[in-house]
Structure formats: structure tokens, C-alpha cells
Amino acid sequence: MQLGSKRMLGEILMEMGLIDRAQLRLGLVHHHETRVPLGRALVREGVCTESDILRALSQQLGIEAIELERQPLERKLTKLVPTRIARRHRVVPLRLEKGEREVLHIALPAPASLEALDAVRAVSGKPRIEPHLASDTALAQALTALYGIQEDTREPAFEPTPSSGPGAPILLYAWPPVTATLISRALGRHGIPTKVASPLEVMHTGPADLVFAPVQAMEGLLAGEARIGAALLLSGGSDDEDLERAHRIGAKGYVSNPLDGEMLLRAVRRLRPSSDDSSLSGPNG
User: Fold this and answer.
1) Distance in angstroms (rounded) separating the CA atoms of residues 105 and 141
2) What does the alpha-carbon distance between residue 265 and residue 261 come to, in Å, rounded to a whole number?
3) Which of 145, 233, 238, 249 qualifies as a FRET site for 126, CA 20 to 30 Å off?
4) Which tens digits make up the pLDDT trace of 156-184?
5) Are the CB atoms for 117 and 91 separated by under 8 Å?
6) Sign of the CA dihedral 133, 135, 140, 146?
7) Where does the chain have alpha helices with state H?
8) 3-state DSSP call for residue 169?
9) Which pTM does this prediction carry?
10) Integer-rounded Cα radius of gyration of the chain
């Protein structure tokens, strides 16, 4: 069980002026694909700092955030919070406040849990535990300093897309598996490699990449606010409305449905001048 209210972290960050809606969408894509907390996803994307996230989490949970790296650590307090509890719940004892009722202040990560507080209360024998939020990096350093607990705080490098350039695969986004396979095989016969891409890979493309996707799929991903770096080739209906929708998203090429192989090749060749110039039979051929 977690403490505090459940106001959405993204809404709080926008209210604080730390991110806009397009940046939130980018973080949410990363969050859902890599299954890391939204705050960590935004830090990985370079949208926010750990300090920004901590301030927002403090508002969300109603718990004071501290700069743990600036706090003096008292080794004697490890007697109140043994290593096994510190390791399991990633809690660091800060200070013992004397008075009518002693208060043990601890630092812990967000989201703060009742389980962590109950565990510290049980082993310390102190009836009142006061939690404070700290960043993952600062907690890892403090746990090492006090307990010798070693944690790997390095963020994994995230490189979801292939190398950019004329020979890089065309990214096929949001096609049904059968359709993607047919498109891939058809283009492959003419020396044009393809790769089925995830939303996060599409969001991390660069100018030399080419994404081929249905209009409605890109509308859902970008929501009219975010932009991707790749050249965007879209497929949709032949009516003017779909063409206008593609233009609003920023498409640099368009192929109407049902897919015509020759039109597709011409569009790919225009956006990728180095591609094979030979003709292409239809994707269903």
C-alpha cells in the first residue's frame, strides 16, 4: 500500500511548468514500453532531472522531499534499522528526534509504502516514523556509506533504433502482423530492409530514418503535439480528408489504400534516393 494522494504525476509536472504535453507523451511511451516508473522514464528521456521528479512526487504523495546527499548520516542509527530492512525497503535512518515521543526520521524512495514504515517501526521500537523522499541515486550512495550495500545505479543505455542512414531499415509502425510481413517481403525483394518498430523506437528516430505507418496510428502516437525526427511516409484513404490529416502530422510522403506496390516504391525511392530503382509488384503479390 502506498501513501499519499493519487494525483497524476504527469499533471503535476505540467502544472509546475517542468514539461509540456508532448514531453509527457514521450515519457508515457517510454514508461509503457520499458515498464519503468514514469518519473524514471522522463529522466531517461532527458526531459526532467531527478530533482524535478522528486519535487513533483513530494506534491503527489504529500511527503517532504530532501536532498539526502546533503544530510549528515549517523552510523549509530543503523542499530535501529538493520541491514536486512534497509536493503529490502531501501530506507536510510536520518535522525532520532527527542521529545515526549521519539520520532525516527527516515529517507526512502517514492512511492513511499506503509509496509516500509511498518517494518521500520517494528524493528526500531519507535512508535512514530517520519518519512522523507529521496532520489534513487542519493539513496544508493547512503546505503553504501552506512551499510556497505552496493547497488548498480547506472541507467541502461537505450538505443532502440537501428543506425540511421540510407541503408538503415524502413521502420514499419502499427501495421497488422500479416500486412507488415507482406510489406517487408515485397520491399526486401528489392534490397530495401525493413523493421517492425515500437512506439518508443519511432519517437527516437532521426532525420535519416524513414517511418511507414497508417495515418490514424501516427495521429494516436503524436496527438498533434509531438514531432518525430524521421521522414514520415503514411498510408490512408484516397480522399482529401486523409491527405489533409497526413499533412497536419507532417508527412513527407503518402500512399493511398489499398496499397499499390509501384506507388509505394516511388514514395520510398523519393524519400530514400539510394534505394533500388527497379519496379515493385504489389505488397500482396
Assistant:
1) 18
2) 6
3) 145
4) 555 555 556 667 899 999 999 999 999 99
5) no
6) negative
7) 9-15, 21-34, 38-44, 50-61, 83-89, 114-124, 136-147, 177-188, 199-203, 215-222, 240-249, 261-271
8) coil
9) 0.71
10) 26
